[in-house]
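User: What would this chain look like folded?
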Amino acid sequence: MFASAESPVVGESFAESLPSIPLRGRIHIRGGQLTAIDSRWLPGMASTMQIWFDSRSRQSRTDHCYLDYRATRRVPGYLTLEYIRCRPGTSYASFRAALRVLDAIAQQRRALAIFAHVGTTRISDRLLERFGWQPHAAKLGGRQWIKRFYQHHSPLDVA
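Assistant: Here's the prediction, encoded as structure tokens.
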């Protein structure tokens, strides 16, 4: 099916093994393995009501994680992490695999950065920093984070 999400994403092999990547998509991870990347017409933009409903709805305890992302044609060098949902039984390996696949998508698209608004305190600042994220746009309020990839791409030729 797909390459393992556990393989290092730093190398080109994992990013190249991904199928064609849609502009808006959902990454499905089950048991620490990439199972699908679906194209989504409208990404799962999370509202406060949806987060409240997801936290209170009865969920299965399977090891399943999905992540919605978006890239726009208007700003091609950036990705937005729209929504990440983990069930109560989701392992750390599945959560980490979802983020690694997102990094591989950014690498394949040659993105300069990924933006995210972290709305829950269950994801600590320390964990985000461990994964390479940095605080961003403090004036906007909330917890805005960015993961930069400037050093991973060759510099632009402006001449």
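The longest strand covers residues 78-86. If you want, I can go into more detail on any region.
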